[in-house]
Specification:
Helices cover about 35% and strands about 30% of the residues. By secondary structure, it is an alpha/beta fold. The strands form 3 sheets. Strands 6-7-8-3-9-10 form a 6-stranded mixed β-sheet, with helices on both faces. It has a 4-stranded antiparallel β-sheet with strand order 2-1-4-5, covered by helices on one side. It has a two-stranded antiparallel sheet with strand order 11-12.
Length: about 250
């Protein structure tokens, strides 16, 4: 679904990404792993068209991303940045409904409104519907952003640190939801994460970055190993098996 060929990007004279190549398919749940400043957020912004690469190519369903207009991209890709500052006066219901905008005719339909309520129920957010975005905690806002991305109904979802500000219970709930979206609906989900154990437990593939270059990529259980963790995160670790679940233990 997405093919990246020799992608490079710089902020002025500072090289941020260098010769990134990868190929991700429908139904993949991907982790981007690396220290702060490794290029994870920049790669996501390139994949959704916010940034334009210096060199290289991004193909989505065989067509160059740069050749697609904004409406085409909004029907293909939903993106949740690491931080956002929406109008604090907009209510939660209206903010989530905006995720349906790529599919509106003249105005929202009964089906659009129905999707909002279904998604809010899925996230146990019904009582938040009329609350203002500015009144929400960081964790509550993060849940709203994720709900809006899901109702956009795109085949590709990009998330930058989606578990930020979430308590452990909802981190697990969110990862279960994303896993279901990929396995049952065939969505390609790519997310930047810091929690290696969440990546080991829930994702299929990994791309590990250090100083804008790929250290390791491929199946999560082969590419996300002790050597790659040491090279990428500069820590020693051991990956153990606990009742069939892989866990990274720092040494």
């Amino acid at each position: 679904m997405i093919k990246v060929n020799d992608l490079s990007f710089s902020y002025g004279s500072r090289q941020v990404l260098s010769e990134i190549s990868a190929h991700w398919e429908q139904g993949d749940l991907i982790s981007l792993i690396g220290e702060n400043g490794s290029g994870k957020s920049t790669l996501l912004k390139l994949l959704c068209g916010i940034f334009k690469s210096d060199e290289g190519q991004i193909l989505i369903k065989g067509k160059e991303l740069s050749s697609r207009n904004l409406k085409e991209r909004s029907k293909l890709i939903s993106y949740i940045p690491q931080s956002s500052s929406p109008d604090g006066g907009i209510c939660v219901y209206d903010f989530i409904l905006m995720g349906r905008k790529p599919w509106f005719g003249w105005q929202d339909s009964h089906r659009d409104r129905e999707r909002v309520f279904q998604t809010m129920e899925q996230f146990s957010m019904e009582k938040m519907a009329m609350r203002k975005m500015g009144e929400l905690s960081g964790g509550e806002r993060q849940k709203v952003y994720i709900a809006r991305a899901l109702i956009q109904d795109t085949p590709i979802i990009l998330l930058d640190e989606p578990t930020n500000n979430l308590d452990i219970r909802f981190q697990i709930e969110l990862m279960e939801i994303l896993s279901k979206e990929s396995t049952t609906k065939g969505k390609l989900i790519i997310m930047a994460v810091h929690d290696i154990n969440l990546a080991l437990r829930y994702t299929d593939k990994v791309l590990m970055l250090k100083n804008g270059k790929i250290i390791s990529k491929g199946s999560v259980h082969s590419a996300l190993n002790e050597k790659a963790i040491s090279s990428t995160m500069s820590i020693s670790s051991e990956i153990i098996d606990h009742k069939g679940i892989k866990i990274m233990v720092p040494q």
